[in-house]
Structures are given as C-alpha cells and as structure tokens.
DNA sequence: GCTTATTCTGGGAGCGTTCCCAGACTCTCG
DNA sequence: CGAGAGTCTGGGAACGCTCCCAGAATAAGC
C-alpha cells in the first residue's frame, strides 16, 4: 500500500475566508474569548467543521510560548522498567491530575545515553511546559539538565544530589525501620536483608532503616546486595544469604519481587515461611498477594505519589510557590502470612 | 520555595550576534549543512555554548512541518494497562527502532473519553509525525481519527473495523489452535477455556482457534468468559468452570495471568497441574516462569511487534510504500510443566 | 441629539526558525 | 589573465498563529 501522508491542512485563514470574517475573529472564537457576536461565532464554528480545521500546535506554541504538555521521564534500565510495579500506578496518578487540568502527559523512556541527549533537548526545546522525573539516580544527567533549565519540575523520589526542585517520595528509612522492628517483635533472632538499588536513595534508605532497627544486633554478614529489584535477584540473594548463615530466621527484602524470589529459593531447600524464616517485602505490589504464603510488605501509595508530583508541577505552572522543597507520603505495613 | 520559571532563552539571533555571523549561517551550522567555513562553524559553536542556546522546537516545527516525534497510544482501561505483560516490551521495541532513527517516542495513555478528545487533537495538531496504536478495540474513536487524518500510522494488533492503516500482530487463532491441539495430544479429554477480551480481535481469535482445534468435541459449557486478562479473573473463571463440569482435565487460558489464577483456584480445591488438569497460558510473560508448576504457554514476540510497528511508521515517513496491509509474526509454544 | 461607554471587528506586527536567492569571494583551468 | 565553477555569506520571505491597537458599530445616559 502507498505511504500515508498527512493531507494538506486548513489554516485559520481558510476558516476566516469561508466564514466571511477576519483571522482575528476566528482566533477569538477558537480561544473562547468574549466580545464575539453570536453570528460570527456560529459562522466560524460552521466553517471550522466544513474545512476540517485543526489548530497548528507549532504556530500556537511559538507565540504563546507554551505547549500544553507535561513530560514524564522514566529513566530506568529496561529490565527495571519492565519489573517495576509502581511505575504504572504513578503514571496513572499523574495522568489523572493533568487530565483534569487539561494538560497532555507525554512519557519519555530513557534507555541509552544517546536517548538522554535527545530527551534533554526535547525537554528544553519547548515541547513541554513542565516535567515529572521518576527515579533519578545519582549524577543523572537528565535530572541535572532539567534542574538547570528552570523548567517547572518535580521528582518522584528524592535525588540525592539535586537541589531546588521539589520532590515527593516516601520515607523509605522509617518504613524499613518499622517493618524490621516488627520482624524483631515476632521473635526473629537472626534477621538478614536482601538489598537492591543502592545507587539510589530508596535503596540506601531501606538499608539504613534496617540497620537502624537492629542497632547493636546488626550483623553486616547478613546483608546481601543484589543488582536488581527482581525475582531472579531474590533467588540468588536468598541462596547467598543462606551460605553466610544457615540459621537466618528473618529476611527483609528490598522489594516484593525479591521477596518472592527468596520464598522460591527457600522452597527449593525445604524451608518455608513463616515457619522457618519470616519474609517481608516492599511495595505491596501485585506480587504480594500471589506468593505462597502471601507477603507481609510495606504499602507504597504509588498512585498518590504520581498525583502529588503532578500537582507540584501544576502549581509552578500557575505561578504559585511550592511550600516545601519536598514531602514524604505515609506508608503502611500490610501484615499477611509470610512473616 | 518560589515557582520555577524557565529562564529567558537565547534565540538564533543572539547566537548570530555573538558569533559575528548571520542568522542564516547559524542555521546552516545547526543543521550540519555543507558550505560553511571552518571559522564560521567554530565561532557559532562557541557562541551556542556561551549563550546556552537551545533550538526552539515550535519555530522549527512550524516551518519544517515536522516534529521529530512519534506518538504511542495506549488505549486501555487502567486495570489492563497495569496488568498487560506485553506493553512494556512493545514500548521498548518501538523505542529502540525510533531511537536509532533519531525520533523521539512520546507515549500517550488514554483513559477517559475526555482524554480521547485531547489526544486526538494532540495527534492531528502536529505534535507528532506519526503514531503507533496499541490494542485498538472496535469503534475506537482514536483509531478512527488517526485513520482519517492520513497521519503515518501503524497498529499493533489488528483492529477489526479500520482499513488503510498497516498493522502487525500475531496469529492468535493459529497459536490457540496449535496449543489446544497439543493439549489434546497429551490425552486430555475434557478441555475448557477461560476466555477474556472478547471485545477485541486477539480475544476472539484465541477463542476461535480453541474452537477450531476441538472440532466436534467442542462443548460451549466448557468456555467461561471473564472480564479481564487478570489473575483474579483466572481464579473466578476456574471456579466457574469447575461448577460447570468437575471432570475438566485441561484448560486453555487467554493469558498467563489468568492461567496463574486458575492454578491458584485449583490448589484451593486440592487439584494440581499437570496431574489433575493440564493448564496452558498465553503470552509467555514473567508469570509463566513463576507459577508452581511453571506454565506451558504461547510465546509472543512483543519486542519484535514493537520494532515492526515502528518500522512501518518510519517507512511511511520516508515515503516508502508499505508492502502489505498487515503481517503476523510467528509465535512459539513453550512447553513447561503445567501441561 | 450628542456624548460616552460598551461591544465587536479587521489587520499589522511579531514569535524563532528554515528556505532560498542573490551576491561576494576563492579556486581552477585553458 | 579572464571565464566559469565552486564555496561561502547575508538577509528577505514565509510558516500559522496570537496579541493588540485603532476604529466601526451599537447601546446607554443625559
């Protein structure tokens, strides 16, 4: 079949001609301004329908200096992007708020460094009026570029090395502390952790909270670091942990997927939860309800995270000042059967 | 903190002034044209760095009539969007191809009808040069709007009611037939199906393939329709199926998530796979390797689906004609332990 | 009826680019 | 040395829209 080509589009002048009015009047009708006679309005509306007019976004953006779009940057390696249980909900939360305010969300997935360059110029080139950035690691060039650009922005999560951009996150440290304490309170004596994502604040804070809770009883040999927040990492991590100490009776995993992997690794060697080892996850993702036994875990308000971030951007767009640099949303512990 | 405001941006005229050349020369350098002296080129590059110039996208789009961006429309109810195991891979496949060709992918998630209107005008307003649409249902207004717009486009999946737009999909019917036949070949006598998504071609075709394979032995009472491609639907579907006939010994599920739910429902009533009932899923998603036992399923080349769709759009953008209206990619059956 | 508001309209200017034409300057070659 | 080709540059015009000013038409007030 022949290539599809956009048809020659009608301009505001065509509409004006057909409607028998001037360019200015058409523009006024299009933008819903007052001071337009009913006769003119109906004529323009009919003409718009007749010629199939759609406003040229580029021309409009050029003069108004805004695009009506907000960017969402998801900067994750592919594997993480596919695994992350929160991104979907965050995205939907953002979309809900922006949709309400009549902004269009455009998501940019950044993979390679090459993408990074293109995305940075996309953002600063005026395609978007603001931006939400998920999961900025340390030294994230895009985060830095956005911070420098002055573009209204908000982070989901708290980048450690960027200032002046508001953020909304959860208090990973407190949540990890609370859940670890609860594990201790159920009588667990030798509690280990399978930690992931130590290159970002969330990962580090979860580890810190775990350490906080254990205090003197903290034993570094019981912390295993794994590369991904993934099921496979959970399996590997649990196996390694058991070689370090086969009397482990509690495990805090950095994510539900890791916890699920840990449960599977345990099953392979004849151990079960919560009997032999109490296992706790993080995220309260779809995983948590589907493992055997269902996971005790920390519930993350992902949807709300997205909504808040979007609101932060909108506030700036409207010229309102943002009260605090950052805020943390409440997490709740969901105690199921795995611990 | 005060609202962030984009700083006043430098224009090409500022660059020209600083570099001591004309607007035209700056433009030539920016666009990598020949016929620019080395002296001018270096002067311009230095000036660009000095004033922090970034090209204004709107102005450029206005005159070139292109945006350098391709839209991806994901038109799914929220629940599906979060569950769908393929969307992520498709997106990454598209992104890989477009990134190579230096196009920026912008993803638009459509939820409400209100979003639909905004998205349609976004697409036809010149923000994107082309578009990939995932999962168009019947009477999808956005699919229709795109088809009518003449915008270079491609569907992932085969919309039943839209013509003239190329698509790439998988042969759901053959795949379903093949997998059902294999289930029969292993000696299953009473094979049921838990079917989802009958409002779209993929769902209908899977059911049709299932019916094809069974031929005379098809028993409509053994087909249970569920609303979502989800775990919870699998649980409900399996329970319902067992009330219809408690001697079922084989089940084909429309997705891995459904199959996983079916396995859980079976476990609850003391049945197991493959001993009591052989269970087969669809997608070969992350689920498949994590159920107990691991699922036999149909592997969907999601990444490739995305790549092909992106290539179809690029071909049109380059004015090449597209050989066939649609194509179907090969699926493979992955036989694990659940059947 | 005349003045002053109020409502409505047309069209010039300008947004920041690219495109393209005309002219200047530099080679090359007979 | 002069003609022609090749290289390089400046700047006018246009892209399609919004903004805004000035003026026309209508309504309101005395």
TrEMBL record, chains A, B:
Entry-linked InterPro entries: HTH_LacI, LacI/GalR-like_sensor, Lambda_DNA-bd_dom_sf, Peripla_BP_I
**Protein name in the entry:** LacI family transcriptional regulator
Q: What high-level taxonomic lineage is stated for the organism?
A: Bacteria, Bacillati, Actinomycetota, Actinomycetes, Micrococcales
Looking at the record, the residues that make up the HTH lacI-type domain are 10-64
**Organism of derivation:** Herbiconiux gentiana
UniProt entry tagged with the keyword DNA-binding: yes
Pfam families from the UniProt entry: LacI (PF00356), Peripla_BP_3 (PF13377)
Alphabetized, the UniProt keywords read: DNA-binding, Transcription, Transcription regulation
């Amino acid at each position: 079949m022949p290539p599809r080509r956009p048809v020659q589009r009608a301009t505001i002048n065509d509409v004006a001609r057909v409607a028998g009015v001037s360019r200015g009047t058409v523009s006024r009708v299009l933008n819903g301004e007052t001071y337009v006679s009913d006769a003119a309005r109906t004529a323009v509306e009919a003409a718009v329908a007749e010629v199939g007019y759609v406003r040229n976004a580029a021309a409009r953006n050029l003069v108004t200096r805004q695009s009506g779009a907000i960017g969402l940057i998801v900067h994750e390696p592919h594997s993480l992007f596919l695994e992350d249980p929160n991104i979907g909900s965050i995205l939907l939360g953002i979309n809900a708020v922006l949709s309400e305010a009549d902004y269009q969300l455009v998501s940019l997935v950044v993979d390679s460094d090459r993408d990074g360059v293109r995305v940075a110029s996309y953002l600063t080139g005026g395609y978007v009026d603001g931006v939400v950035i998920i999961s900025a690691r340390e030294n994230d060039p895009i985060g830095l570029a956005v911070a420098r650009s002055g573009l209204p922005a908000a982070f989901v999560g708290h980048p450690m090395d960027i200032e002046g951009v508001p953020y909304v996150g959860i208090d990973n440290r407190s949540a990890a502390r609370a859940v670890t304490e609860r594990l201790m309170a159920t009588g667990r004596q030798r509690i280990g952790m399978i930690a992931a994502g130590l290159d970002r604040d969330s990962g580090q804070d979860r580890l810190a909270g775990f350490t906080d809770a254990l205090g003197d009883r903290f034993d570094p040999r019981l912390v295993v670091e794994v590369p991904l927040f993934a099921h496979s990492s959970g399996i590997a991590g649990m196996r390694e942990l058991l070689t370090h100490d086969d009397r482990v009776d509690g495990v805090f995993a950095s994510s539900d997927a890791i916890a699920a992997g840990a449960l599977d690794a345990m099953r392979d060697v004849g151990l079960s939860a919560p009997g032999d080892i109490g296992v706790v996850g993080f995220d309260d993702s779809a995983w948590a309800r589907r493992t055997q036994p269902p996971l005790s875990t920390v519930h993350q308000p992902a949807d709300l995270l997205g909504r808040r971030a979007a609101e932060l951007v909108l506030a700036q767009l409207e010229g309102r000042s943002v009260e605090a640099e950052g805020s943390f949303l409440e997490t709740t512990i969901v105690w199921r059967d795995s611990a």
